[in-house]
Design brief:
Helices cover 79% and strands 1% of the residues. It is mainly alpha-helical. The protein has a single domain, classed as UbiA prenyltransferase (Tetracycline Repressor, domain 2), CATH 1.10.357. It has a two-stranded antiparallel sheet with strand order 1-2.
Amino acid sequence: MWLWMLIQMSSTKKSQKGKGYKAEGNTVITAIGKADERKGPLSAYWRLFRLGHGLMLSLAVFLAFAILGSFPLLHLLLLSLLSPLFIEMGAFALNDVYDVEADKLNGREERPLVNGEISVKAAWLLGWFFLVLGVLLAYPLGSTAFAIAAFFAFLAYLYDARLKNMPFLGNAFIALSMAVPFFFASAIVGAQNVELFLLGGIAFLLGLSREIVKDVEDVEGDVKARKAKTLPALVGKKNAIYLALTSFIAGLALALWLFMLELSSIVALITLVIVLGMLSYAAGILFFGKGLPQTLALYRKVTLWAFGLALLGLLMSRYLNVFVHI
């Protein structure tokens, strides 16, 4: 309770003070938009924690159990779903703390630390609270699962503080964090199979592509605010987009392989058609979008939703297995 009161007071103070932010040079970024103010505090925290990403990680863990045909006891299942969710929440909150100046320069007015909806202090407290809580919740899941959670929580902090400024290493870490839920689940139940490794590979390659594209979006602010040496800063935006497209195509190839193993399920077949359509659209956006900020942002949204739909489709195709093994 005391933590929540401190956060609320800190956030209120910040929102009263910060009606706008001035970047260096002639660029002035208007911080608080009326639309954001109408959304309320829940929307601000949703955007701070990127809860859509976190829920997808929990879904990935649940899907991995279904694919393996093995579920832990109910209380351990709950911890298995909450641990990656909380680690992701903490990592994203701390990420916004470290990125606040770059986000101002990049005009990220939707970010709650930029527009003053949440204070930097509140985000810092919440970030560490959820990061540590996520690791602690993994302790009853076994030594291997606990080690995976602790290692990735440490890497999440390292990414926020250092790795994001390095070419490719930061991208690779975020991509790996999208793949790790499948292996986290495997460690909990002590089983693995080919489909799980394929899912991990798809998550890594699509995640890598999305993160390179994000660096292209943010390159100007990243270089000015943090002197970051990200991939597009070193090789140029165009070449970085080509690298993102290469990673995307490799992920798409693995996705086709995975769904070929699931063609006996009509649900998986329907999901395959829809997801392929979405990914083809995303590839067109990336290839023909000319690197415009709005097209790059759309690419990231479409690929995220396509991956989420693929997870849901595969989970539904294993529907009977879920109820047999829980």
